Amino acid sequence: MIESMINKRCQHICAESSPCIGEAGKTGEWRTSYPVIAQEKCLPNRQNKPVCFLCWLYCPDAVVSKTIPIQINLEYCKGCGICAQVCPVQAITMVNEEKFSFEAGRMGSNDK
Fold first, then answer.
1. What is the pLDDT of residues 59-101, one digit of tens each?
2. Among 53, 58, 86, 89, CA closest to 69
3. Contact (Cβ atoms closer than 8 angstroms) between residue 93 and residue 38
4. Is residue 91 within 8 Å of 35, Cβ to Cβ?
5. DSSP labels for the chain?
6. Considering only CA atoms, which of 99, 83, 93 is closest in space to residue 37?
């Protein structure tokens, strides 16, 4: 087992992990806020090339896509707000979950 932990480039024992979507399960009813991306502010979108992606890098739930445009899988997002905190251009804001449910319901896009 330790042999599999040895990095073949440096020969040191290194811990390695890679998060998987859904590792902690779907979010459910307990999330209090969720991230919204202002795509016009987002650096990869504005420059149309793979720059920045700090939100993708720091998301503990691995729910931010490394694509242009960036997308967030809200089914698994826990609403921690780390993506909004690390965004250098404040393209991500956290929105109250109740406000979203009300507005989406009014627009008819979240009816169940």
1. 988 899 999 999 999 988 999 999 999 999 999 999 998 755 5
2. 53
3. yes
4. no
5. -HHHHB-TTT-SB-------TTTT---TT---EEEEE-TTT-HHHHHTSS---HHHHH-TT--B-SSSS--B-TTT-----HHHHH-TT--EEEEEHHHHHHHHHHHTSS--
6. 93
Amino acid 29: pLDDT = 72
Q: Which domains does the chain have, with CATH numbers?
A: 19-107 (3.30.70.20)
Give tens-digit pLDDT for 25-52: 777 677 889 999 999 999 999 999 989 9
Residue 35 has φ and ψ, to the nearest 5°, of -85, 140
What pLDDT shows up at residue 2? 45
